[in-house]
Amino acid sequence: MPFDRIEKTLAAEIAALDKAGTAKRGETIFSKVIAASAGKGPRYLLDGEGDQAFLRMNANGYLGMSLNSDVMAAEEAAVRAFGTGPGAVRFISGTSTPHVALEDRLARFHGRPAAMIFSSAYATVMGTLVPLITPETVVISDALNHNSIINALRLARPGEKRIYAHLALDELEAHLDETAGKFRRAIIVTDGIFSMRGDHAPLDAIVQMARAHDADFADNVIVVADDSHGVGAFGATGRGTEEHTGAEPVDVLVATLGKAFGVNGGYVTASRTIIDYLRETSPFYIYSNPITAGEAAAAALAVDILDSPPGAALLKHLRAMTAKFESGLTELGFETIPGQHPVVPLMVRDTRRTTALVAHLRNNGILATGLNFPIVPQGDEEIRFQVSADHTEADIDEALSVLADFKEPA
C-alpha cells in the first residue's frame, strides 16, 4: 500500500515507547459501577477482570459528583429538553439556555464579571493563552506547569518565553526585572494545583509581584492561573488556590468541569472585555462544538451543590479522608508531600519499586497511578493517589492495609 514506509517508522516509535515503559494505549476499561454500600464507597468492575471489585484512587472526581443522583437527573432532564448534542458551534446555532446559565453561574461563583465554557480544560488553556499572547509578549511560566500550558506557548510563539524553577519566586521576579521595558505585555502563567505533586502556587505572592511590576509593561502584567485541580477541591468553600492562599483574584482563571464538578468541559472567567475578546478570537471556542446542554445543566447544579451546606459537608469529609490517608502513609513509613489537597503522592523514588507497588495494589483491588521516569525526573518516581469525598474511612483503611502488606521486590 502507498503509505507502508511511514507505518514502519511509526511502528518503530511505538515500540520505543513500549520499551521505555511510557506507552499509554493499554487503557483500563471500566465495565460497571457498583453503588456505595455497607460503609464502603463505590467499587468498579474492569473489563477482563471478572467479578473483582476495585477501589478507585486514581480519579479526579474529588467530590463524587459524577454519581450524584441529582446531578444525573439534571443532565437527563436537559437531554430530554434539548437533545443529546449541540448540533453546531455556538456562534452558528449551538448555544442553548443551559450554556448561558452555566456561564453566569460560574462567573458569580468566582466573583468575576463573565465566564465562557469550552469543550475541555485543555482546550480552554489553549484557547485562552494563544489569543492573549502576541510577538510583543513575554511569557513567564513555572517549570512544572501542565502539558496544556506548555503546548499553548509552543503554538502562541511569544516574543520571549521564560521558565522559572518550580515555585521559585525569586527567579520569577528576576525575569520580570530583566524584561521590563522590552515587551508591551507580560503574562505570568501557573497551575494553581500542580497535579503530579498536589502542591500549590503561592498565588497571593504572585499577584502582588505582578502588581508591583505592572507599570513596567504598557499592556500590564497579566496573571493567568489554571486551577483545574483546585476549584471544587481546595479552599474553605472549594473556590480553589486563590481562596486557600488569600490571593487577590488573578486576572484570568481557567478551571474544569470534569474533575470536582464531575461532568465534562472547561471554562475561563475574567473581565467582560477579556471574555468578549476571547469569544471573537479563540479558535478552540469558535470552531469547536460546546459541551452538551445536558452537561451544562448538570455542571450548573454541581456548582450549586458545592455552594451550599451539603457542599460544605462534602469538603469537610474530603479534607478528613485526605488527612487520614496522608497520616496513614507516614505511619507506615512511606514518604509523601504534606498538603491539604486530595492529590496525595507516595514518593517511591525508584522505577522498579514503583512498578512493583502499583502491581501489588492492583492485584489487591486498589487502582492508583504510578509515575516513572521520564514522566517525572529520575529520583522523583511516585504513586499518585487521589482521595474523593465518596471514599469512606473503611476505604482509606483498606488502601492502607494493602500498602502495609507490600513486600519489597527481590
Note down, in words, how this protein is organized.
The protein is of the alpha/beta class and about 400 residues long. It has two domains: about 10-55 and about 310-405, Aspartate Aminotransferase, domain 1 (Alpha-Beta Complex); about 70-305, Type I PLP-dependent aspartate aminotransferase-like (Major domain) (Aspartate Aminotransferase, domain 2), CATH 3.40.640. Helices cover about 45% and strands about 15% of the residues. The protein has 15 helices and 15 strands. It has helices at about 5-20, 70-80, 90-95, 95-110, 120-130, 145-155, 170-180, 205-215, 240-245, 270-280, 285, 295-305, 310-330, 350-365, 395-405; strands spanning about 30-35, 45, 55, 115-120, 135-140, 160-165, 185-190, 220-225, 250-255, 265-270, 335, 345, 365, 370, 380-385. The strands form three sheets. Strands 4-10-9-8-7-5-6 form a seven-stranded mixed beta sheet. Helix 2 (about 70-80) runs antiparallel to helix 12. The longest helix has 23 residues, at about 310-330. The chain is globular. The mean pLDDT is about 95.
